[in-house]
Structure formats: structure tokens, C-alpha cells
Amino acid sequence: xxxxxxxxxxxxxxxxxxxxxxxxTAVRLAEAGMDIGITWHTDEEGAxxxxxxxxxxxxxxxxxxxxxxxxxxxxxxxxxxxxxxGRIDVLVNNAGTGTATPYLDLGLDDLRHVLDVDLAGxxxxxxxxxxxxxxxxxxxxxxxxxxxxxxxxxVGAAPYCAAKGGLGLLTQVMxxxxxxHGITVNAVAxxxxxxxxxxxxxxxxxxxxxxxxxxxxxxxxxxxxxxxxFLAGPxxxxxxxxxxxxxxxxxxxxxxxxxxxxxxxxxxx
Length: 269
Known about the structure:
Layout: E1 11-14, H1 20-31, E2 35-40, H2 44-56, E3 61-65, H3 76-85, E4 90-93, H4 108-136, E5 140-145, H5 158-178, E6 183-190, H6 221-232, E7 243-246
Parallel strand pairs: 1-2, 1-4, 2-3, 4-5, 5-6, 6-7
């Protein structure tokens, strides 16, 4: 009697999963029963620590370096991880970078660097993943991690805002075009989250005070990962083309917004 091949486990590739939101997402999706493809740019040790956490959940982890400024070849990493994992069901475009430079002081190289990592990279990685999902024939999930600055500007962050705003609209176009293949595409837009990118790698966000955020504190990377996991799972099968803010209510502040506020005066009319 001929034995049937064992199908590959569901698999997710998460860019920039060496720390912060990416690591939290890798662990959360491993808990949901997925094998995980992990990418890193400069922090190999962090990526291997993520892989150990994934394996501790009983799931497989594959690790690869990727530099999203080296396009289009950097997107080959997605294909390589898919080959090693056997398939791809979820892509999370999480890797990102930004600036804190006034608009008039920015150079073209600054702009191109941020646009490549935050917009062109997700564009190309999304193509690679979607083509494989279509060949597999059973749909898939793509989640693009944007920012509250997909929706609102920030002084000193012109390239970042341009890239994240573009990624938000790209998400909507991808959702429309990939829907017929059973692939959903959504964005998650974090506010201030306690991660290395915000200089809070070892910070408990529940101990930090942020009067300018309605919930009064920064977010935890695991709180973002929970929303990503929902969008990557079966319960979100009818959700596509949406942007989910995970910001403690900051976007609802409108012209009052600002995680830099030092007092609660805005809470009173």
C-alpha cells in the first residue's frame, strides 16, 4: 500500500521578525499552529532568539537575512523561505525604517532608503507571496504593518509618512485584485508601541504614562500581534482592504493628538 505524502503545515513569513512587533507576531502565529519564516537585517542574534521561541511552541522556524534596500533581489528571500517551509499561507510585511529629519534637510537618498524598505519592499514581497498562494490554490492572508502615520502626518517623518500612506493604499488595491483568488489583504496601523524602534526594548508599557493617548500608555507589541493573528486566521475570512489602528485611541484625538502631551487638560472641556 502506497503511503500518501504528509501535507506541509500552514506557514507564515514575517519580515523584520528579529524583535518587537515581528517577534511577537512570530510567536503568536506559532501558537496558532503555523511554521514560521523569520527575516532579519542587522540583528541575527535577535532572529535566532525568535526562532527559539517559535520552536519552543512546537513549530518549525526558518531564518534568513534580508536587506530591503537591495531590490528586487531581496524579495527572493520570500521565495527561499517558502521553499524551505514547503508553502506559504500568511505574509506579514513588518520590516520598516524611518527618519527624524526636517523635510528641508532631507536628501534624495534618505527618501529612497525609506521608500524601498517601507513601500517597494512590501510591494515586491507581497507579489512573491501572492503568486505562490495562487499556485497553491487555497487562498491566503497578507498583512501589511503600516502605522498611525498611514493616516496622519508627523513632523520630521516625511519619507515615513509618504511610504506608510502609500502602503495603506497599496493594501487596498491588493485586496481588490487578489480577492478572486481567496487572498485577503489588510493593514495594521500601530501607534506608539514599546519596541526597539521607539527606544523601549525592555520597557513595560503599562508602567509608562502617556497623557496624550486616551488609554494613557504606549502599546505592547503583543497587542499588535493579536490583531495581526486575527487578520491572519479563519475568523477574518470576510475582512479585506481594511486598516486596523492599534493605537490606544490616539487617532481619535484629531487635532488634539500627540503622544508627547504631558498633561490631561485635553480630557476636560
